[in-house]
Amino acid sequence: MILMPAAHVDFHYEADPMSYREEVDKWQRFSSGLPGGTLPVSEIPVGQVTYRLRSPVQGYFVRQPDGSCEFWVDGFSPTFVGHGNRVNEAYQDWRDIVHENFQDLHGKRPFEMDEAEQRQWRVLEEMIDIVGYRNETPVVVRQIGQVTQARPLPRQITWVDGRRELVRFDVMPPEFASYKAGQYFEADVERDSLTDKLRSVRHIMKLSSVRPLPEGQTQRFWGGLPTTADLPESSHDWTKP
Fold first, then answer.
1. Cβ contacts of 205 within 8 Å, gap of 6 or more
2. What is the CATH number of domain 139-211?
3. Cβ-based neighbours of 88, under 8 Å, separated by 6 or more
4. Is the overall model pTM greater than 0.85, yes or no?
5. Is-cis flag, bond preceding 78, omega within 30?
6. Sheet (strand 49-63) strand order
7. Across the 241 residues of the chain, what is the mean pLDDT of every consecutive 10-residue run?
8. Up-side HSE of residue 113: CA atoms within 13 Å toward CB?
9. Which of 193, 95, 198 is nearest to 137 (CA)?
10. I need a surface site. Which of 10, 84, 119, 124 has the fewest CB within 10 A?
11. Nearest one of 120, 151, 100, 170 to 15, comparing CA atoms
């Protein structure tokens, strides 16, 4: 299926309980077998991430009176419905809406969500393998390191925290192949969220030599930083209006 740019979905029924009820009724009417194409859904790939579902579900393409198409999915709809002029547009619209809402709500605590967001998150939590997503999604960190061995391959990197790793060109940007022993660099590193193992380096940039500050200069630096002793005094009732 070729995916085309999708139209924006307006969740107008989320703000109105009666409209939401009407959407539920609509879903129940056509999910029982109204005409239209179907698409089994077991995962939702979006760019660099794939959302795996707890179990496969069925999606339904429903032609509208104006000739447009809607995409409804068991378990996700009516909370998440895709709209488009064509079948592939409706699918991509649904996929992008699920992705957008998941990324928006995944980082929120329950008390930070309004009623509509809580309803959306309950659906996502019930349908998507969130534990699997967290385990499979890499952690991206920015690190400074040095090439401490260029030959023999694989090259050895020593990070500023003292950790050493052997890396192959397969997981590095092309320009890393030109780095010689002794070269310092800064990198955006993708690591396994469970093992902390290096998966790949997304971006890398050469740095001039990195040297620790002399002991006396280091002490002056830390001694010059502000402390809690510099804060103004306050009474115990400072929180009271």
1. 185, 186, 187
2. 2.40.50.140
3. 1, 2, 3, 4
4. no
5. yes
6. 38-46, 49-63, 69-73, 82-84
7. 34 41 51 63 92 95 91 95 93 97 93 94 96 91 93 90 93 94 94 91 88 74 78 66 56
8. 17
9. 193
10. 10
11. 120
DSSP the chain: ------PPP--GGGG-HHHHHHHHHHHHHHHTT-SS-EEEEEEEEETTEEEEEEEEEEEEEEE-TTS-EEEEETTTTTTS-EEESSHHHHHHHHHHHHHHHHHHHHTS-GGGS-HHHHHHHHHHHHHB-HHHHHHHSPEEEEEEEEEEE-SSSSEEEEETTS-EEEE-GGGS-GGGGGPPTT-EEEEEEEE-TTT--EEEEEEEEEE----PPPHHHHHHHHHTS--GGGSPP--TTTT--
Whether omega before 154 lies within 30 degrees of 0, making that bond cis, reads yes
Q: What's the token pair of residue 192?
A: 């396994």
Contact (Cβ atoms closer than 8 angstroms) between residue 19 and residue 12: yes
Tokens of 199: 């998966």
Q: Find how far residue 19's CA is from the centre of its chain.
A: 31
Amino acid at 239: T
**Domain residue limits, the chain:** 12-133, 139-211
Dihedral sign for Cα atoms in the order 101, 106, 111, 112: negative
Identify the residue whose tokens are 């310092």.
Answer: 184
